[in-house]
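Researcher: Hi, I'm a grad student and pretty new to this. My advisor asked me to get structures for two proteins we've been looking at. I'm not sure of the right format, so I'll just paste the first sequence and hope you can take it from there.
Model: That works fine. Here's the first sequence with its structure tokens right after it:
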Amino acid sequence: MLAGIANTDLILDRDTHTIILTRVLAAPCEQVFEAWTQPEHVACWWDPSGEPLAQCEIDLRPGGAFRFVNRHPPGANQFAGVYREIAPPRHLVFEAMGAIGRVILDETGGKTFLTVRIECGSAERLEQYLKMGIDTGTAKTLDNLAAHIGAMAQRTSSSPLTAPSSGE
């Protein structure tokens, strides 16, 4: 487990040049997939600092592009790529920054086991990603995702029930 990252496990597979992060989330796969693919949700949790994104564009289809722009420093940090495979609510594959990202969701007992695989393609690119802090930054975003999903569940459970009108 990473120091300072509460509940995310990290594996560096140097043989396949892959960063693997896993985490259990207290929500069903459908809710996690929605939080991972809908701009109104991604904008709330993607930036490792916890700040909402300045811009979040998602064209959720194979061949569709995405672009996430962090708020600080303005316009400097941008993450963009193209979706390769989409299989709601269990699987998402995208290409970004010269790597392949895989998001795999497995549900058990109403909780989701999330696996994020960042396949870097070469030992050199893996080392570059580690120097950039992609491993710890991604782990922090997963902390943010867990908090966002918790807030989503709290909003859903605290929604007031609609009382029948007295005129019926």
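Researcher: Oh nice, that was easy. Here's the second one.
Model: And its structure:
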Amino acid sequence: MTDAAFDPSTPDSYAFWTQERLRAGDLDIVGHVNNNAIGVFLENGRVRMFMAAGENLYSAAAEGGSPETTWVVRRLEIDFVREIRFPGIAWTGTRVTRFGNTSCRVEQGIFVDGTCRVTAVATAVCFDPRARKSVPISEALRGQLMKACDLAGDGPFPG
């Protein structure tokens, strides 16, 4: 896998999409969707992609147990490209573009009315919640994540 030709601001770069209906409560004082709401859109995209890969992120915890591995964000960079205003629908594209030993690079774009409004890059770490440390990403999990990146999620993107 290579990310050399990957352009996070182009909808064609993504297959996995999540959709969010913009809410009046998401707005800041000047009428933009605020950075907290944008962080939630990005988180939902990452979590839904990991779950589509078969990662049981939350149900084990709800049942009183904990999954063998989960994902934590070590680093998150967000570029606010253009304003997002209410009302509307925000579409978040999510894709793994690179693997390390214990982490992966997750790139995302948020689009409204077909236009890129936000790009983001997260370093997600495969984490053992019992041992409280990072663990290597298995080859099987790498394959599952790559397959999940090609699923439609809430999509396909309507652009």
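Researcher: Is there anything I should tell my advisor about the second?
Model: You could mention this: The two ends are 26 Å apart (CA to CA).
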